[in-house]
Amino acid sequence: MDAALLLAEPEPQIRGDLERKLTDDGFHVLGAALNREALELAERARPDLVLVSEVDLCARLREGEPGRSWNRDVPVIVVGPERADALDRVRAFDRGADDYLHRPVVYPELAARIRAVLRRVAPPPAGRLQEGRLLVDRTTRSVSVGGCTVHLAGKEFELLSRLASDPRRVFTKEELLRDVWGYRALCRTRTLESHASRLRRKLAVAAGDRFVVNVWGVGYKLVE
Fold it and tell me: Fewer CB in a 10 Å sphere around the end CB: N or C, the chain?
C-alpha cells in the first residue's frame, strides 16, 4: 500500500501516534496541524485521501477556493468528537464526507475504513468478474448467466458491476448511491431500490438463482 494520506489533526500526540501507525502499515503520511497548512498540502501533494477532524475543513476541500487547485473530489474521512451523534454524521455527509467515525479512534477500524474508501474510488479494473454461473465483463459491458446473455440498462450494469466486485460484501445504500449515481449524501430516493429490483428480476429470469440480496436496513450484496 503506497497511498498518500493527508492527516489534518491539531492535537500533536494524536497526530504523531496515527502517523506512526499509518506509516507502519505502508501509507505515506503528510501531517498538518492547521487547516491552512492542510489546504496547502492538499494542493501541493495531491493526496489520495484526507483525514480531517473538522467538518468545516471537509466542506472547504469540497467547495474549493478562488485561485486554489487541489482535487475537490479527493476522498475525505471525518474523525468526529467522542460525543458525536447521528446529526453530526448527517452534517458530515452533507458537507461531502466519504466516511465518518468518532473518537476514541480504534486504529484497526480506521485503517480498514481507509482501505475501503480507497477501494471504492479506485478505477475499476478491466476484465471479467465471475460468481458461479454469472459472468460480468467490464471491458465489453456484457453480462451472461450460464452462457445466456442478460441485457441490462446502463445503471443496472454499473450496480451489478459494483456488487460483483466483492460478491459477499454488504454495500450500504449510501455507498451504492455515491458510487453508482454520484450522490454526495444519503437522500430520500427510490432509485437504488427500483434498479436493484429490476436487476434481480432480469437475473432471476436467466438464472433461476437469487442474485442481488437486500440486507434489510443496510443495503445490498450480490449473493448470500
Answer: C
The model's pTM is 0.57
Give strand pairing partners of 52: 8, 78
Chain CA centroid to CA 147, Å: 32
pLDDT tens-digit profile of 114-126? 999 998 877 655 6
The CA distance from 30 to 26, in Å, is 13
Does CATH place domain 4-121 in 3.40.50.2300? yes
Q: What is the dihedral of CA 50, 53, 55, 57, to 10 degrees?
A: -60
Query: Domain 128-221 belongs to what architecture?
Result: Orthogonal Bundle (1.10)
**152 with 206: CB under 8 angstroms?**
no
79 pLDDT band (50/70/90 cuts)? Answer: very high
Three-class SS string for 36-90? HHHHHHHHHHCCCEEEECCHHHHHHHHHCCCCCCCCCCCCEEEEECCCCCHHHHH
Strand partners, 149: 144
Q: Percent of the chain, pLDDT > 70?
A: 94
